Amino acid sequence: MFQPSNAFSSFAVPDLDAARRFYGETLGLDVTTEPETGMLELRVGSGEPVLVYIKPDHQPAVFTVLNFPVPDIDQAVADLKAAGVSMERYDLPDLQPDANGVYRGQGPAIAWFKDPAGNILSVLQQDGASA
Q1: How far apart are the C-alpha atoms of 55 and 12, rounded to whole Å?
Q2: What tens digit of pLDDT does each residue of 84-108 get?
Q3: Cβ burial, residue 122 (10 Å; 0-12/13-18/19+)
Q4: How far is CA 7 from CA 10, 35, 45, 72, 121, in A?
Q5: What one-character DSSP code corresponds to residue 17?
Q6: d(C-alpha 10, C-alpha 18), whole Å
Q7: pLDDT 10s digits, 68-82
Q8: How many CB atoms lie within 10 A of CB 28?
Q9: What string of DSSP letters covers 103-127?
Q10: What are phi and psi of 50, to 5 degrees?
Q11: pLDDT above 80: residue 1
Q12: N or C: the chain end with fewer CB closer than 10 Å?
């Protein structure tokens, strides 16, 4: 039977230096460089690291590659905007963003944004916290 050990996520970018600046400086995450491979490791919470690897012909996915649960989505969006991050606006049936780019009403409140490589990320209201 399949017996997985600790799972982890990874995604590609065309420019590791731009990714290091965005994730480390703009988002304030703990970012290290894997010495053997040159890949970036993002430390988010207490789980396994998220690996970011270089792919020169990278094409961003059309779906969210990384979600950040937050206790206060309005504050998280305000902090992201203050750091120069723009919220994405999507044409979703029966769901429109508020003035700050937060979608509410179907599942947890969520706001999407992109990294410099065009990868889609989100902040979403953590369960049990007020929106």
Answers
A1: 6
A2: 999 999 988 888 899 999 999 888 9
A3: buried
A4: 10, 20, 14, 27, 19
A5: H
A6: 16
A7: 999 999 999 999 999
A8: 10
A9: B-SSSS-EEEEE-TT--EEEEEEPT
A10: -100, 125
A11: no
A12: N
Do the Cβ atoms of 117 and 22 come closer than 8 Å? no
The rounded mean pLDDT for the chain is 91
- Identity of the residue numbered 117: A
- Runs of H (alpha helix) within 1-131: 16-20, 73-82
**AA identity, residue 9:** S
Global confidence as pTM: 0.89
Instruction: Give me the residue label for tokens 């989100």.
Output: 122
Amino acid letter at 123?
V
Q: Is the predicted pLDDT of residue 131 greater than 50, yes or no? A: no
Range of 5-14, 18-27, 42-51, 94-103 with top mean pLDDT: 18-27
Q: Retrieve residue 81's tokens.
A: 């905007």
